[in-house]
TrEMBL record:
This is Histidine kinase. The lineage of its organism: Bacteria, Bacillati, Actinomycetota, Actinomycetes, Micrococcales. Keywords: Membrane, Transmembrane, Transmembrane helix. It comes from the Bacteria. The chain crosses the membrane at residues 7-27, 42-59, 66-86, 98-114, 121-138, 144-163. The keyword Lyase does not apply. It comes from Kocuria tytonis.
Amino acid sequence: MSGAERAVFAHRFMGLFVLAAFAAPFFEAPEYLDATERTREMAVSMTAYVLAGLIVALPRWDGRRFPAVPTALVTVLFLVAAQQGYATTPPTPDAGQSPWFHLGFIAMLFALGMRRRPGWAFAVWLGVTALSVLRWPVVNGTIIPVETYHVVGVAVMITTWMVERQYDFFLRRSEETQRILDNARARDEAEKDMRHASSRRVDEVRRLAGGLLEQIAHDSAEVTDYDVQQFRLTEAQLRDSIRGRSIATPHVLELTRAARARGVAVDILDERGSTPSPEVLQSTAQQLAEILSGVQSGVVTVRALPPGDPAAVFIVYDSQNPDDDPVAVEIADVTGVASVF
């Protein structure tokens, strides 16, 4: 998740805020310059300090983790600024003192934390703290902690670290909640689709077999051979509507019913699972009508091919006559262009 954006760390005025914090020590810098005899070290300290502040503050605050190279450069520059800054200030036993860059130190820890580089912020804190501790005077064998501004740095690091941890926690919870909502919505849609499919299926059965079912239920007259034939034709239509669902349009079902009534064997098979384009459906009905027109016998197979196949539908008519060649029609996917073989 290191490359992901964190909106909580992205603000257009964040750079100005950090620059202002880095600039604050310069209001007292002239006093430090007047008080030190090591102006060269002070100049190096201020130069490294300014470069570190500009590098960490000026790039766009987009909520992403700060790149490793500028992060390492900022860390080195600030440690150089701290080391040279301490070199210009002789240690004293006075408690509560702090170096000229201590406000920038807090700003650097904050900036690296908000740049999502807590490890490098800790490295800066550790380096500056070590430089400070080495300057603490020893009185009667006891080290006197004359500088305590590092404690504020610890608080800043912990705060920025907790902000990111909490943000990640709430982000994961938000994503989990959204995932649950999406799954629930998908289940609802699936249930609606199932209900609609069931409703369509009932309507289809009612349309195809409703009259015959009512006849069976209410007509006590003797069943004739014609009735038996109609039952079989209707059964075949229902079978076509199931086995050839994606291409078994009402027009196709009527064509196959009429062909079966004349003695033609018809099979409609669906290996596609999804409805093809309107052009394919129209071409299928047209080609099937041309093949079945005037045919009194033989076998016709209409097959919807799997998705991804260049052909959407393949129709084969075999007259069962050894002297005749089978007729095959391939209907292209999407366009519905028919090719006869």
